[in-house]
Amino acid sequence: MSRLTHLNERGEANMVDVTDKSVSERSARAESAVRMSAEAFELLVAGSNKKGDALAVARIAGIQAAKKTADLIPLCHPLALTKVEVEFELLPEDNTVQVRSYCRLAGRTGVEMEALTAAAVAALTIYDMCKAVDPAMVIGPTRLLEKSGGKRGHWRPEEVTHG
Hints:
Elements: E1 24-35, H1 38-46, H2 54-67, H3 69-72, E2 83-91, E3 96-107, H4 112-130, E4 138-139, E5 143-148
């Protein structure tokens, strides 16, 4: 009988064996946020950032990060993602960029870590692109919004009302 844990019978960290799990459609959504000064937000919205289009670069960075999650997070399975999206919502009332990611595949394990990695790396990229104007930006919270597929089916925290 397979245990769904990262510890083997000797208590050592190992990648979970998903060989006996069935393939199913799996997806996950995650979010992060970057709150910045009004000046940095205005430059970002206007596309006047000296480093270029921060949102375009952050979108690509998030997509690349999702595809490389197994290289970044120990014990994650390398996955053949079939869809990765990274989107942004600009919230001028508090100078925040809301980052949302979506990952999907047909596989034996979920894509929560890939969605979280995509959102986090996109947020970090926005920080990197805007830090010359506002090094005091705040990133987060980063959290899982929803996941579906596998044995547990659909999961969504009760407090999430968007995404």
